[in-house]
Amino acid sequence: MRILITNDDGIEAVGIRSIADKLSEKHQVYVIAPKTQKSAAGHGISVHSPITYTRLSSENCKLRIAADGTPADCVKLAALYFMKDRLPDLVISGINEGSNIGSDVIYSGTVSAALEGAYMGLRSIAVSNADRYFKEGYELAACFISDNLEKIVAFDMPAYTVLNINYPPVRHRGVAIVPVGMNMYSDSFSEVEEGVLQISGFPKTDGADENTDIIQIRKGMVTVSPVRLDRNDYDCLEKLKKGTALR
User: For residues 20 and 2, what is the distance between their CA atoms, to the nearest angstrom?
Assistant: First the structure.
């Protein structure tokens, strides 16, 4: 299988190395990832500047490219340039250093890279290790993906939809196929020096739905959540059509 791997933590991050090493044992792995840290880059792409890149030692992979661009840029580079003559069978974004659950998916460069793959017609998944300090989690998450790869590829995925997979901060106790939850952050800015503001905060999960990734990950479950590009609110659309006389 031809597999494209990218991330938002940078090409030398432990997560991307873990999954590339594992999957290259049996598959053709191509790594095209940001040169530096791009966490929370969202779905941005570089439209106003060229993208520079460096070919790195391939190690156990077919190709390793460090690009001075966003995670979504890296998927575009693969599909439109480096792998255009023979596209990947699967795009894997990760393994992210930290969770991408709940409202994280709005900001996540990891999830956005997978969604870019889906946008370009490629089967794609995002993978995260919920606790970046749970070092064993990277290998465990890589093994989980490797063990379930055939099932993931065989699943009849709808167009423009990706699987957002999070590995818990312990050896997993099972798999929970659940929706992405809604959580808020206790964000605030502090002035670290004159004219320089730094944001910080933590997720607030009070009142979160039990049947979502937010709670299930805390129970030691691998969470699998389908996420799609379609942002339309169809219920609201119909209400607007029927009840709003805009002119």
Answer: 12
Predicted TM-score (pTM) of the model is 0.94
Q: Specify the pLDDT at position 245.
A: 67
Per-residue pLDDT tens digits for 66-118: 999 999 999 999 999 999 999 999 999 999 999 999 989 999 999 999 999 99
Q: How far from 137 is each of 24, 202, 215, CA to CA, in Å?
A: 19, 21, 18
CATH at residue 11:
3.40.1210.10
Residue 174 domain-assigned (yes or no):
yes
For 226-245, b/e burial (b = at least 16 CB within 10 A) is: ebeeeeeeeeeeeeeeeeee
Distance CA 107, CA 44 (A): 10
Burial string for 2-30 (b: 16+ CB within 10 Å, else e) reads ebbbbbbbbbebebbbbbbbbbbeebbbb
Query: Which domain, by its residues, includes 165?
Result: 2-181+209-243
Q: What is the maximal distance between C-alpha atoms in the chain?
A: 62
Per-residue model confidence as pLDDT tens digits over 195-244? 999 988 777 766 677 899 999 999 999 999 999 999 999 999 999 888 87
Rounded to 5 degrees, φ, ψ at 221 are -100, 145
Residue 200 lies in a domain: no
Strands 53-55 and 63-67: antiparallel
Structure tokens at 192: 């670290």
Write down the pLDDT at residue 201.
79
Q: Is residue 63 part of a domain?
A: yes
Total domains, the chain: 1
Is 230 part of any domain? yes
d(CA 223, CA 212): 8
